[in-house]
Every structure is written in C-alpha cells, then in structure tokens.
Design brief:
Layout: E1 24-26, E2 29-31, E3 35-37, H1 46-55, E4 59-61, E5 76-81, E6 84-91, H2 100-113, E7 118-123, H3 128-139, E8 145-149, H4 163-166, H5 169-182, E9 187-190, H6 199-208, E10 212-215, E11 219-221, E12 243-246, H7 251-263, E13 271-274, H8 280-288, E14 291-296, H9 298-303, H10 307-322, E15 350-354, H11 364-372, E16 377-378, E17 387-388, H12 398-402, E18 409-413, H13 423-429
Parallel strand pairs: 3-4, 3-14, 4-7, 7-8, 8-9, 9-10, 10-13, 13-14
Antiparallel strand pairs: 1-2, 5-6, 6-12, 11-12, 15-18, 16-17
Helix pairs in contact: 3-5, 5-6, 8-10
The chain binds flavin mononucleotide and iron/sulfur cluster (SF4) (2 copies).
C-alpha cells in the first residue's frame, strides 16, 4: 500500500514549520516549483512572462512559435454552469501571430533575467528543414527545453500540423526523432487528447527519442449555438467551427490520460500534466498520479497570474501536513492505489448516514435515491428529515453527492466479515457466475 493510505508517508511525520522544497526536475528542465504556464495567451509576450515570474510561476511554455498566423475574431467561448463563468473554455485560436525573431528575442531576454525559471519554447512547423532551423534558433535563446505542439485541434491540423501529427503515431514518431536529433535541450512532446488511447502517441514519442510528454492539449468541441443568429459559438460573422475545449470541465479526462501513462509499465518518460488546473488541489491530483510538473492556461486567463500564490502556499502546507520535504517524494504516490475495475474488492461495504442536526430538510437526497438510485431513503415524518434504510442502501454515494450541506451525509464503513475478493479473484476461482457483479 502506498504511503498515502494512512495520510503519511512511510515513517513520515507532520513537518509543521519545517522548510519544504517545491523544486522539480522534469526531464532535465529544472524549476523552483512545479507550476508552469502552459503555452497560450498568457505566454504570448515577454512582458507577460516577466510578470508571471514575478508572481511566482516556476516555468513558462511560450506561446507556440512557427510561421505567424492570422486569427479570427472572435475566437473564444465559455460554458457557464449554474452561475459560474468559464466552467469550460473553448477557443479557435492558432499559434503565435507575432514574428519569429521578435518572439526569440523576447525569450532570450526573459531567460537572461530569470535564470532559475524553466523557459520552454513551444514549436510547430512542417518540414524536416524547418524543424532543424527553428530548433537551432530557439536553443540559441538559452531556453531550457522545447515542447513540440502536436495537439492543436483546429486550424493548424488542416495544414498538416498540430493534432494531425498527434493523431498519427508514425508521423509523430518521425518528427520526434528529428527533434531529438537536432536538439541539445530536452524535448517534450505535447499530446492531443483527441484520440482513443493516449498510450499510442505517447509510446510513439518515446520511440522517437522524446525526453518527456505533456498532456493534454484541448479537446475538439462545439461549445454551443447562438439561438438568435443560429451561429455556432464563437461566432465569426455568423459562422463558427469546432474549437479546443479546456478549463475545469476537462480535468477528470486529462487526469485519466495522465494516469493511463503513469500506470503503463512500458511508458517510461516524465510527464508534464495539463488540463483544468486552477487550485493547488487540482495540481496535487496531477502530481499524485505521476506528473512531475503541472501546466496551467485557462485559470490564468480567468483569474490572472496571482493564482500561483494559492498553488504554492497550498502545496507547501499540504507537504508539511503530510511530512514530505520534496515533491519527488510523492509524485505518482497514488498510482499504486489505482486498479483496474476487476481488481477492486467486491466485499467492501459502506452505507449512507444522515446527520439530522445539520440536515436542512431539502429532501434532495430522497428524490435522488428514490428516482435515480435504489429507493432506500424514507420520509418517516413527522419532520422533513429523511432516513436511510441501511439494509437496502448499496453505498453508491449519490445522496452524499447531491446533499447541499457539507458533512450532513457520511458514508460509514460496514464490517461484512468477508475477505477481500475481486471480480478477477472470482474468475480465477471459477465462481464469477452471471449476475454476480450486481
Ligand atoms: C486560447 C488558448 C490558446 C492556446 N494556444 C496554445 C498554443 O499556442 N500552443 C499549445 O501548445 N497549446 C495552446 N493552448 C492549450 C493550452 O496550453 C492547454 O494545453 C489547454 O488549454 C489545457 O489546459 P487548461 O485547462 O489549463 O487551459 C491554448 C489554449 C487556449 C485556451
Ligand atoms: S440532501 Fe442533505 S440536507 Fe437535504 S434532506 Fe437530504 S440529508 Fe438533509
Ligand atoms: S448511498 Fe445510494 S443507495 Fe444508499 S441511500 Fe444514498 S443514494 Fe440511496
């Protein structure tokens, strides 16, 4: 069992007040903390990256360099959900629209002023000669590494770049090999999530000689339709197209993909995790599931560079509480607890318990269990406080998830007296008969 099972690393002790070191080394790229700005609008100019580093960001992946493009107007869309703006974010923006030499001059200037921060040049070009040229010129800036953008799902893929490469492992492998041949700094391959199994392109990157992967780029999406003009959103003079989806809504899918790579024994490269991070808890999820650094774009576009203060402080406090001195002590620490479904214990049992003293009698739990689960919450009266019929409760968590009062419904462990037994154990014993999964 991992050290996190009891909340402490093996032999760990809370380190109240003790110094903790947030520095990381991701494939040879060092930064004073694991928090990097992802390639995007916040890393468009030197002025922004200077301010980001002043705020405390450990690294920045520059807005993707290449042949400067022309963007559409408008180009962003947001999903508002129950009063929260930008629960998900969609864009049809392309790579940098600024001349290459201007970007390169600014990268060199930023690196000179911030030698301890990770400055990574994100690149996207087409031919072998163009890759050789842009890698050489980028490395001349003194940058710490390169990120190959094989993930952009709109505009660039139609030109044979971005996700058109990320979705074709053979092409990805070949370009990664060129980059590995030309580069003297670490090469990170940025993967597109618009694929059935992220392991295929990740293995192609590894075979091609990449030093790390970063994931995810944005998910191909149509965010909605303007109900007056009937234009897909974002609307470009009454017309729209599919864009890339990101922000808090995509975090669970990004985490799944990071976990998929973290669990695959054949995949050995370091991971830079990206997708929906806006709090230190979000970032910690990525670290615990195997990411060495964590990149952020949408949350900075929403709240600004200063969110890094919460990321740094929150992670430091958690590390002290858990007795960790360095980040590499817990990178991937949750992976041993991630199992395939067939290996989970079918004899583990919990049931819901309602605390009448905090219940506000909204009866949401009753409606959820009655209509959407297993009909085991009753309204016995005379108050409106519901009651769980323990013998019928299957422990699905639904009532706890819908209850608006934190801590009002608790899931209580029930001792069954039965030994741990998984579906795969039953298959091995020949007792996995039809219907016995339910
Ligand atoms: C407006 C916008 C522009 C982006 N431009 C780039 C880009 O030029 N290169 C790149 O590799 N990723 C680009 N991305 C993707 C982000 O780097 C990141 O992978 C993605 O947004 C997921 O992270 P998030 O949920 O923190 O935003 C862009 C994202 C947004 C929202
Ligand atoms: S959802 Fe929570 S607060 Fe509402 S009735 Fe059920 S237990 Fe009480
Ligand atoms: S845990 Fe599921 S089955 Fe049990 S009371 Fe809640 S909703 Fe019903």
């Amino acid at each position: 069992m991992s050290g996190l099972g009891n909340g402490l690393p093996r032999n760990g002790r809370p380190r109240t007040g003790a110094p903790v070191d947030l520095a990381v080394d991701c494939a040879g790229i060092r930064s004073p903390n694991p928090f990097w700005l992802a390639s995007g609008p916040p890393t468009n100019t030197a002025g922004q990256v200077h301010r980001a580093f002043e705020a405390g960001w450990g690294g920045a992946v520059w807005k993707t360099l290449g042949d400067p493009i022309t963007n559409t107007v408008s180009r962003y869309g947001g999903t508002a959900y129950q009063g929260r703006n930008v629960a998900g974010f969609n864009n049809i923006e392309l790579i940098t629209d600024r001349p290459l030499d201007v970007n390169l001059r600014e990268i060199a200037e930023v690196k000179r002023v911030w030698p301890d921060r990770a400055v990574v040049a994100s690149l996207m070009v087409e031919s072998r000669d163009e890759w050789r040229d842009i890698i050489r010129r980028s490395e001349d800036t003194g940058c710490d590494g390169l990120e190959l953008n094989f993930g952009c799902p709109h505009g660039m893929c139609e030109r044979g770049m971005g996700s058109a490469v990320g979705q074709e492992p053979k092409v990805l492998e070949e370009i990664a090999r060129w980059a590995a041949e030309f580069a003297t700094t670490p090469v990170i391959v940025k993967l597109t999530p618009n694929i059935t199994d992220i392991l295929y392109p990740a293995m192609a990157a590894q075979r091609g000689g990449a030093d790390a992967v970063s994931l995810v780029n944005t998910f191909k999406s149509v965010i909605g339709v303007d109900h007056d003009t009937l234009s897909p959103i974002p609307s470009v003079d009454g017309e729209g197209t599919s864009g890339g989806y990101c922000g808090p809504a995509v975090k669970p899918i990004a985490l799944h993909m990071v976990t998929r790579l973290g669990k695959a024994p054949e995949f050995e490269l370091p991971i830079s995790g990206i997708g929906g991070v806006q709090s230190w808890e979000d970032a910690l999820d990525f670290l615990l599931l195997g990411a060495t650094s964590v990149q952020v774009c949408t949350a900075v576009m929403h709240y600004g560079f200063r969110i890094v203060e919460d990321l740094v402080r929150g992670l430091e406090e958690w590390m002290r509480r858990k007795g960790y001195a360095r980040v590499d002590e817990f990178v991937g620490a949750a992976l041993p607890n991630y199992r395939e479904w067939g290996d989970l214990d079918l004899n583990y049992k919990i049931v819901a318990e309602i605390d009448p003293s905090t219940c506000i009698e909204c009866q949401l739990c009753y409606a959820a269990c009655e209509d959407g689960a297993h009909q085991c919450i009753e309204l016995p009266g005379p108050t409106r406080v519901p009651r769980v019929v323990e013998e019928r409760c299957v422990g699905c968590n639904l009532c706890q998830l819908v209850c608006p009062v934190e801590g009002c419904i608790t899931m209580i462990e029930v001792e069954t007296g039965l030994p741990r037994e998984s579906w795969n154990d039953r298959v091995r014993k020949g007792t996995a008969g039809a219907g016995s999964t339910h």
